Amino acid sequence: MTIDQIARELNLAKSTVSRALNGYPDISEDTRERVTRTALSLGYTASSAARNLKRGRLDTVGIVLPGDELDISSPFLVQFLRGATAVLEQRGLDLLVASSPSAQDWQPTYERLIAGRKVDGLILTRTLTDDPRVAFLNRTGFPFVCYGRTRSPEDFAWLDIDCGPAMREAVRRAVGLGHRRIGFICAPTEVNFARLQREAFGEAAAAAGLDGELVIEAGLDSADGAAAARDLLALPEPPTAILCGLDVLAFGVMHALRDAGLQPGCEVSVIGYGDVQFAAFHQPPLSTFSQDARNAGAWTAEMLIALLQGTTAALLQRLRPATFVDRATLGAPTLTPEALAERLKRSAA
Questions:
Q1: Where in this chain does the record put each HTH lacI-type domain (predicted)?
Q2: 252 and 314 within one domain
Q3: What pLDDT is stored for residue 149 in this prediction?
Q4: pLDDT score for 258
Q5: Three-state secondary-structure class, residue 320
C-alpha cells in the first residue's frame, strides 16, 4: 500500500495525503481523520526512515557518557535514563546512549554524532563550571539541554536542582541539633554543582559561627568518601557531623565510620545528597536530599522536545528545589569532638 493508492481512494492530491499523514498544521482536522482512517483500513504503514529523511528529523536524541566514568549500575543514572526514556517513548522518540573515551576527550564523539546526523539533539549531564561542551554546541547551533548549570547559564536550556539552599539547610539542621564541628566532603569543584555546594557550605558555616574550612574535595565514588572520612576522623577535633555532596560519598563515609567502630547517626551524623535508590535501604537508612532522579530525566527530555519544536532556549531554564528526606543518620551529637577523638584513639590502640 502506497500514498498514491490512498490519494486515488480519497480523490486527493498525493501531497495532501502525505502532509496529512505527517501532521502538517495546514491540513484540516477532517481531512487528516479521513486520510488516517483510510490508511489504516488499507493497511498502510509509513516508512519512518523515508519520512524522517524528508522532514530532516531522525526522531532520536542522544546522551554522551564519558567512558572513564561510565557506570551503568549508577543508581542516579539508571533512574534519570528511565525518566527520560519514558517521556521520549511517549513521543515516539528514541534515546541513543554513546560514550566518549574520557571526560576530557569528548569532542570527537560529539562531532561524529552531529556530522553523521545520528541525533536531533543532545542531553548533557554533570555540567562543569566552565563547560567546553556547552561552548562547542552553542557555536555549532546544535540543539541541547543540560541537566545542570554552568557559571554562566544564560544562553542555553537547562534543568537544575537548587543544591545551594539544600546545603545551607543541611548545615542549619545539624547546628539545630547541637553540632558545632561539621565537616563537608564534596565532589570535584570543577563540576558546577559541587562548586555551588562548597560555596553554600562556607556561607552557612560562617553564618553559624563555625569553622568553614573542614572541607575535603574528594572524587565521585564510595572509596573517595571513605578516604575523606578517615582524614576528617584523624583530626585532633574530628567533626560530629559530616555532610556529603553525593549519596555515593556518604555511603563511603558510613563504611569508614563502621570500620572505626562508630554508628552513623549516633556518634557521627551523616547527610547525603541525591536520594538515590539505595539510600533508603542502607543500614542505617541515609538522611539525604532528594533530586528525584527519575522526574529529573523526564523533565530534561520534555525540555529537549520543546526546544526541538522551536521554543527559545532562554525560556527553557528551570531550577527545582531539593527536598530533605529525614531517615536515620542525622541526630544530636552524643560525644563532643574531644571525646570522639579520644574514643577513636582508644579504638585504634
A1: 1-55
A2: no
A3: 97
A4: 97
A5: strand
Say how many C-beta atoms besides its own lie within 10 A of residue 10's C-beta.
17
Specify the length of the chain in residues: 349
139 and 192 in one domain?
Answer: no
pLDDT at 49: 44
CB 192 within 8 A of CB 151: yes
The three grid cell numbers given for residue 19, joined into one nine-digit string? 502532509
Q: What is the CATH number of the domain that holds 33?
A: 1.10.260.40
Assigned domain for 53 exists: no
Q: Are residues 260 and 185 in the same domain?
A: yes
Q: Chain-centre distance of CA 248, in angstroms?
A: 14
Cα distances from 85 to residues 88, 89, 92, 264, 298, in angstroms, run: 5, 6, 10, 36, 8
Q: Which domain holds residue 287?
A: 166-291+326-348
Q: How far is CA 148 from CA 82, 93, 196, in A?
A: 18, 23, 11
Look at residue 36 in the predicted model and tell me its pLDDT.
74
What is residue 151's predicted lDDT score, i.e. its pLDDT?
96
Q: How many domains does the chain have?
A: 3
Residue 100 to residue 110: CA distance in whole angstroms: 8
The amino acid at 259: D
CATH assignment at residue 305: 3.40.50.2300
In a domain, 69, yes or no: yes
Specify whether 305 is located in the same domain as 269. Answer: no
- Residue 219 phi/psi, 5-degree rounding, is -95, -140
Q: What cell does 323 get?
A: 527536598
Is 274 within 8 Å of 268 (Cβ atoms)? Answer: no
The one-letter amino acid at 146: C
Q: What angle do CA 322, 323, 327 make, to 5 degrees?
A: 135
Question: What is the pLDDT at residue 76?
Answer: 86
Residues of the chain with pLDDT below 70 are 1, 22-25, 40, 43-57, 68-73
Can you state the angle between helices 3-10 and 29-41, rounded to 10 degrees?
120
User: Is 51 a domain residue?
Assistant: no
b/e per residue 269-292 (b: at least 16 CB within 10 A): bbbbbbbbeebeebeebbbbbbbb
**Is residue 250 domain-resident?**
yes
Cα 128 from Cα 151, distance rounded (Å): 8
- Cβ pair 121, 144 in contact under 8 A: yes
